[in-house]
Amino acid sequence: MARRSKTSPFEDLIFIASRLPWWLSLLIALVAWLYLRIPR
Which pTM does this prediction carry? Predict the structure, then answer.
């Protein structure tokens, strides 16, 4: 059985995002943009 080599958290996020539907990735990006745009 082949084992995955250890990856960084960033690579794990990219892997998870690649498995999501395109519209869900777009929705997450929009929510993140709105969250980061709001002045605190």
Answer: 0.61
| pLDDT tens readout for residues 17-39 | 899 999 999 999 999 999 999 88
First to last CA, the chain: 49
How far, in whole angstroms, is CA 39 from its chain's centroid? 23
Q: Which residues contact 8 (CB under 8 A, 6 or more apart)?
A: none
Answer for the pair 17, 25: CB distance below 8 angstroms, yes or no: yes
The token pair at 36 is 């980061």
What backbone phi and psi angles, to 5 degrees, belong to 29?
Answer: -65, -40
Which of 37, 40, 39, 17 is closest to 28 using CA atoms? 17
